[in-house]
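re: ur question from earlier - yeah i can do the single chain one, its not a big deal. heres the input i used so u can compare w yours
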Amino acid sequence: MITEAKQPTDLELLQAVNEALSKRKMEQYVPSDKQKEFHAIGGDDSVKERLLMAANQAGKTTCAGMETAMHMTGRYPDWWEGKRYKKGSKGWAGSDTAQTTRDGIQRILLGEVGEWGTGAIPEDAIVDIKRNVHGVSDAVETIIVKHTSGANSRITLKTYDQGRKRWQGETLDFVWFDEEPPPDIYSEGRTRTTATNGISYMTFTPLMGITNVVRRLLNEKPDGSVVIQMTLYDADHY
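and the output i got, formated as tokens:
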């Protein structure tokens, strides 16, 4: 006896669509004018360091996270005018502590703990995730991602409280500082990209006033540096 296959309900179909969309966040990313400007300036080969100085909840971490995912996967949207990596890339991303890195950078790139693939990096591009067994619970240390060239990209998640020495040694294509780093770590991170003609970018809210890092970029304005300032009025999602 042949039985008719059960058809999914409207609710089941909606849940399936929502689940599929949750794993394709990068494709759905529509930047605000300020975010798009931040990305585009990175396409200028003379620009080596960028700062997106923005209000809390304005989308600064999402902006840099989406760009990082694009560099790692090689999947750039049609509107993209920024830097492009045509082969697998290697980078670091860091924040104040293991907890802030987990709750910020890691969440934006991978999604919530237990929901890997629902962040900026598409699920089908994730090759391997190595947890940080010596740090905060559920913290990740390294993410391996498949690039469109066929090679793999790698990003290591770091913290400022590890100290300057843990920011030495590697040769990198990019470094992302989420939250303002101490001057010595900022200098070390930027140095990692010198040999590759790479880039560094920062995203933070200037809660500590005119620090050495802020003064360098806002007042001294060294060659190859750009600052984009973004308020809540520039955040389209508000």
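The first strand starts at residue 49 and ends at 54. not sure if urs matches, ping me
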